[in-house]
Amino acid sequence: MTDVLPDRTPIDTTDETWWRQASVYQIYPRSFADSNGDGIGDLQGVTSRVPYLRELGIDAVWLSPFYPSELADGGYDVADFRDVDPRLGTLDDFDRMTAALHDADIRLIVDIVPNHTSDQHVWFQEALAAPAGSLARDRYVFRDGTGPDGSGAPADWTSIFGGPSWTAVGDGQWFLHNFASEQPDLNWDNREVRDDFLRTLRFWSDRGVDGFRIDVAHGLAKDLGDVLPTQAELETLPKDGSHPMWDRDDVHEIYAEWRRLFDEYTPARTAVAEAWVPADRRARYASAEGLGQAFNFDLLESDFDADHFREVIAFNLDLAASSGSSTTWVFSNHDVVRHATRYGLPARASLADESARTAKQGGLWLLAGGDPSGLDAELGLRRARAATLLELALPGSAYLYQGEELGLHEVADIPDADRQDPAFFRNPGVDIGRDGCRVPLPWSDSGPSYGFGAGGSHLPQPAWFGGVSVAVQEADPASTLSLYREALALRSELQAEESLTWSETGRSDVLAFRRPNGWTSVTNFGTEPFVLPEGEVLLASAPLDPSGDAVALPGATTAWLRS
């Protein structure tokens, strides 16, 4: 890996729209690069790999949580929102990393986790020591238990990670945690909570952060009322902005206040919402008066199917236009099975409806032990390369997850004793957890952690990692890493206004669209070759086939052409 930064156009510090069609690379810091050999990735490790990130050709890094944490949920249980976990570095390390990224013309987006804190946060420790009805407890969601002594839970609610959503504190009161019990939910009706997060957003903005990814953005506002519904009743309530906990209309009052703060900066700080809401409710999170952008997970949840891809793309471009935002595209992140693996497993549509969500994440295969015979790894990678090249041709922002540029598959055979995800422990036999996509990256083809660090790695790496490492792929012009580098460089050159025109192909399994400045993306979702229209082939996700005087696009392949 070179230590010399390739030439790039310097960041335009006055560009208010840089995020609209940015290529954003998600770093899960504990699994990216380890600078001190303790088996945990850190901020100095990120800084050391800035030349790699610049050569990759991304516009921004999205840094997953790096705050002090007991790791009850991989860092999403935050004990201090305005500091760095000492295992990952210091605030000075953060500043040096930010400066290195900016010197490389790469912007920085950081994760903010506003729905809950860690149970080790000073506020929650104060709440535990304070009596019922105190100001300290009002920062969180406490309720009296049922029964004469309060020994019964306020409701039978189930948390996202499985198990109960309420935990007793020993004095007749219980606290709400929609995720792990170590992640108590905050009370966003409390003005102190709102003001403290404004301080947090300003703290990181003043340190040079360019934007924020908002975790569980649809969960902050709550209105539980005096009588709590049952879990069964919760699941039947309408998703129209009036639900007691999720996607309430009044959550946008919070984000309007955040937007006023963001707009004090030049350029204005950007934000993207992680909001698992019905598609027709996503636009409010992405509005110019709110966060500005929201994740679109529709392709992430799609089979490798031309009709479905076209439907998703058309719908989300229309949705983005209605909100004044740009849309986002993503296939992999820290919460789902890597798309190279998903695309090598049986299609979701071929499985039972009741298992659709688990199936689309590859969960059924993982729960069954991740038998390699059940995965067509070669086909999965071929489809993943084709899908990514299509994604990078679309107008809007492309969000990439660390390691997908290496074509990494999910690590399926992590021993139970080495797993870390609370979802695995709270849902035995039901949820395998997310550790398989969080295994530390392979940088070299040998060594105790394949170049991740001088020591081991906090999650076990498989033997096949060496063959797909950065060092191996850098030497191979046909590698997935080489494809990503070429595609991202071309994307930057070809960038046009945020629109496309569909091209008819005469085949239902071939999808083609044209961008305004005269280039076309064609994807063959089928198995039979498709003769490409005339034009200069700029890039293809797999080798093309000569077909007389024409060029044929093989199955599971995308090509970019200029005419």
Question: What's the total helix number?
Answer: 16
CA radius of gyration: 24 Å
Largest sheet report: 8 strands, parallel
Overall body shape? globular
Strand content: 5-15%
Helix amount, in percent?
Answer: 25-40%
Low-confidence stretches: 1-5, 352-360
Structure, explained:
The structure is a single chain. This protein is an alpha/beta fold and 563 residues long. It is built from 16 helices and 19 strands. It has helices at residues 43-48, 50-56, 91-103, 122-129, 135-138, 191-206, 231-236, 251-262, 306-323, 339-342, 356-360, 363-367, 377-393, 422-426, 470-474, 480-494; strands at 23-27, 60-63, 107-112, 142-144, 166-168, 173-176, 211-214, 270-273, 292-294, 328-330, 397-401, 501-503, 510-515, 519-524, 530-531, 536-540, 545-547, 550-553, 557-562. The strands form four sheets. The protein has an eight-stranded parallel beta sheet, with helices on one face. Strands 12-13-14-19-16 form a five-stranded antiparallel beta sheet. A hairpin with a 4-residue loop joins β5 and β6. α6 packs parallel to α8 (251-262) and α13 (377-393) runs parallel beside α16. The radius of gyration is 24 Å and the shape is globular. The two termini are 35 Å apart. The model is unreliable at 1-5 and 352-360 (pLDDT under 50).
